[in-house]
Protein 1
Amino acid sequence: MSFGSDTQKTEQPTGKRLGDARSKGNVAFSPDLNSAASLLFGFILLYALGVNLYNSLYKTMKVSFVNLTYKDFTTDSITNIMVSHVYVLMKILSPFFGGLLLIGLAMSYLQVGFMFNFGLLKPNLSKLNIISGIKNLFSAKSFAKLIFSVLKLIIVGCVSFLYVRKEFRSKEIIDLMDTSLSSIFAISMKLMYGLALRVSTALIILAVLDYFYQKWQYKRNLRMTKEEVKEERKQMDGDPLIKSKIRSIQRQMAMKRMMSSIPKADVVVTNPSHFAVALKYDGAEMKAPTVVAKGADLIAKRIKEIAKKHKVPLVEDKLLAQTLYKTVEVGREIPQKLYYAVAKVLSYVYQLKKENKRL
């Protein structure tokens, strides 16, 4: 026997629960994924744009040192030189930093989609609570984060060690002392780029795993009890008692409308006691006779009483009354297969009305 099973959060969060959490800025997000992706693609961009960046910076620095030979420095000349250098540096570095910005935005969008919430800018004084801060520091979530950080450090260290050990055993490194300074610089840059690429790749793999963990933890924290699911379903679908009351009122209103249309009917076809169906036909507005009211047993009795009160003819036809009751809804025209049977009834009624007028 499971005690308090209704209070245990065993149910997956509903769409409304997830939507409410998202509106408050509570989403599954891994900052490590953004950092690792920016680091990896940053090195790729640096490798792709490295030569152009180096040449542009070289020309800029050369112009700067040439300007130092000027003897007539003034405030305006220094300002112009600084402004021109800032503009040139921005122009040189904008592709690199612009690429990093786009990568960061793309990774954020892939994780949480488009979300802009001004409510997150409001100060939250509860975060300044020292007691809750200490509890969070020693919580299971903090412990899991610590374990993951240590694991990340170990994996990055192993990747770095294995790469460095492999490269330092290569013939290219062994013969490094006999090469020129430019060759040493080129080989060093190659080693640094290779190491950075492998480390950032390892970091992004770990960050992807962290994202899936954050998503699992996020849904786990938003789990609901069975009672919460029932209550939410009531709020969305409406209370069953209220819905039942509304349906009852709607039926009463429909019944009143139906009963009010009986005096305008041309004929009421009866079974004679079980069914009653009121028909009306207006050749100018209708393609075929229309059922304006129908009922069985007590409702049929009430239909006949209203018809008698307003002198609407009653015609007994058991088969036709039963067929009309079962196949035609109120407000609908009769089907083509019943045209002949209904036409006979209406013809009889019209003939009866003519005779009454003569009398």
Protein 2
Amino acid sequence: MLREVVIADTGGANLASLRHAFERLGARAHVTADGAQIASAERIVLPGVGSAAHAMQKLGAAGLIDVLRTLTQPVLGVCLGMQLLFRQSGEGPTRCLGLLPGEVRSIAATAARPVPHMGWNELEGVKEDALLEGIADRAYAYFVHSYAARPAQYTLATTEYGAPLAAVVRRGNFCGAQFHPERSGRTGATLLENFLRL
């Protein structure tokens, strides 16, 4: 059976690469800002590259904030899209979707750890969950971000960058990956395959 994914148009730069990543897995994916299409989709991806404030403004202008908050089908937030699932971002500050408790905060830069955090990092403390099936503890994933959430109740895996950061989260049907699965080789492809099976 052909699986379908709708990618919400948040104005980010990773829309095409995410669509191609799903198509490589045999899924049909398309990008839209149409609330009715998103509400009726089998699965939704909330991508994002850029600022939380801009993304929330775009979602608000398209009338998608309430649509996203009431979805009951599987939803995957990617990078900034994961951050938008939280209550607030320290960038601004900006009120986000509030589907996960807590605040996304800026990563502290040091001489040894520049910001943005960019490159391959290990996933640590991977919990058993259908989203992470087949992904081993210490598997590598590709990150590009300047803000992150602290590990908390809904964290499935962390990564270390000066301090532990939430790398994968899940609360019911709402999931998130701080890394870019479309750029993370086999680890990323496995996560996307698992999402298609949720």
Protein 3
Amino acid sequence: MGKSTHPIILFAALVVLVVGLKTSARAEDPVKIGVLHSLSGTMAISEVSLRDAVLMAVEEINAAGGVLGAQIEPVVVDPASDWDLFAEKSKELLLEHEVAAVFGCWTSVSRKSVLPVFEENGGLLFYPVQYEGEECSRNIIYTGATPNQQLIPAAQYLMSEDGGGYEKFYLLGTDYVFPRTANKILRAYLLDQGVPEANIMEEYTPFHHQDYQTIVQKIKTFAADGKAAVLSTINGDSNVPFYKEFANQGLTSAMCPIMAFSVAEDELRAMDTEFLVGHLAAWNYFQSVSAKPNRDFVKSFKQYCKANNLPGGLKRVTDDPILWAYTGVYLWKGAVEKAKSFAVDKVRPALYGLSYDSPGGTVMMDERNHHLHKPVYIGEIKKNGQFKIVYESDGLVAPDPWDDITSADKDCDHVNFTGTYTIEQ
């Protein structure tokens, strides 16, 4: 007969076994991320596809084994184009669902609404859309363009010989923070380049505005000498009646081109592109980028939409915000794996200087300011709703969150400073 095992030894062995099982189970538990995009309301025309892009990235990553051995579990909410609801939903994602990161927002007013929630609760938001700059939060990763990666190159192009040598500019936007701040920066740049004050017009309309007859009449008068262009920061579904009225009054891109900052391939799906031919947009990516990784990405997105019975199916398109929404998930994955942790305080510094071979080409997170180094493109609308690329930057453009003219005294550095700082100090 063998010796009996001491009860204390049995208890200790049992504890080790249970702890080991719990640790193993915890390692295999899914990690939650939040998806915070409007699926209804005036901004749904743009934001629904960003949800789809995030979910496609999640599906790909999970199929390849997940992140640190964990599957990603997306928690999708609908803030319904309501800026107050954005704040409520972001708090729900952080405090109730305890997500590791959030991917979302489109408009700057929605981002401004959630910013204090993320800062107060230590969350991390990946924001995928071009914006007006003048912000540098330690809790936001800005994968969209800064003004020097979209607004300024667009104005430079229009004033150049290749862009038409335009001398008059009608700044037209939706009435909220992005268009007003963007136009402040554009006005300052145009004046600095010698454009007379009289050659710059500025006007705003509310979200979901539908009647552009009077405004287009003003633009027609303003552009009568053939030297004017429109710089458009209209957002959401108001773009449809604006472009339609533009064509109804006989204006064409040859008479007065529209350079858009919030119209891409996805918005063009809902518009009659026959009358938009020749108008322009400035972005950091177009579906028409010819490299094979991008062709594969476009094909995969279409197939994903079809397989998941999403509206449009194989007719769906990719565009700039879609790419950066998708890229944001992979940047987060790369930082998590680099940090070997899902903790925000460890993931954030792991992002600094991180490169990623996006479908649109290699991009790099800045080493200090939470923004991406990326190329700049200007595209001309074709009849099929795609863009012919007419300008491409020479390599990646470094992001500058604070404009050199309107905010020359400020900069952003999360390594040597606490974020935004005054240069004179």
Protein 4
Amino acid sequence: MQFDAIILGGGIIGCTHGHYLAQRGLKVAVFERGRIGGGTTARNFSWVNATSKTGNPDYHRLNALGVSMYDDLAAAFGAEAIGLRQTGALILARRSQAALHAALRRQAAALERLGYPVAWLDAQALQAHEPDLSLADDTEALLAPADKCLDAPRLARFMAGRIAAAGGAVFENCAALELLTDEAGAVSGLRSARGEMRAPRVVVAAGPDTPAVLGALTGYDGFATRFPVNRVPGLLVTTPPVEAGRVRHLVWIDGPRDLHVLPEPDGGLRIAADAEDGAVSEPPDPAALRPHAAALLERMRKIMPAFAGAELLDACRIEVGIRAMPQDGLSIAGAMPGAEGLFVIVTHSGVTLAPALGQLMAEVVADGVRPQMLRPFGPERLPGFA
């Protein structure tokens, strides 16, 4: 079969990128070794934001573009169709925790300088925004009204449908086996479990599996061992619908006993914390996860007394998402040096960045033009790729 571009990875990044390639008139094939949206895309905290990315202005701008592009997608296709909810986010800090409070104030000031919409809430205003939370009297918050929550698997499946409707193909449960090249060494296609597929462009968008996929496709073990992307596990606890105790925004509390919680569409809560992520191994041990999940539920109960806490443990979905983390924390997106027709997209903030990276990389893959916004994020910036 002949295609204009082949994408390896049917998660939110790969499918969204495929959608933008199809919009440009390319015939696209997506290969996913499992189910569309079934990997990291199905196990993440689902926060669409540029609020937490103030350390690097270029990276903030890329994330802010992703946030705004979700508004465009919702206008074009409907928020429900793509799984988008305009929740806003609240990041909390107590005045008595001076270092955390000062850091949050600096973050708010940085976001204002960057032009990202934020507001500062005192304790009274915060309580009005989240009436079911029981917080210390000196708790204040940064409100980021543009932030959103996303049903990421729904978006991936929606975009896969768009690719198929445009004349492309989506191959689920289909492993990519070998990259095909012509006599000059340029990419000419792919050998897969479904046979040989021809295309002059192959894009690897395999998330945390990117190093292993590149190694297997090219036969070069150095990709698997030295490609600068780490695997970072994260524990997620999703409750059933709760009758008492709700959050209206995504709520983020930093500190040694941090807590992150967002409202699920069915009335449940999704809960996570960096402190618990450090206790997760790969592959995860389900039995070992239970006490950490219970700790998250109890931590939630302390700020929401009406919540049942660890009593809900057996009714909760307890999962570990394995996330990609480039070694410098920034996205890797561009043509692979020395490999004509081979491209890579891998990032930590895939939920936020899928539209931005998908569209910008469509210019690279379809037209051979690298947009200015992508220039800081090419693979060539990294050791061994210059």
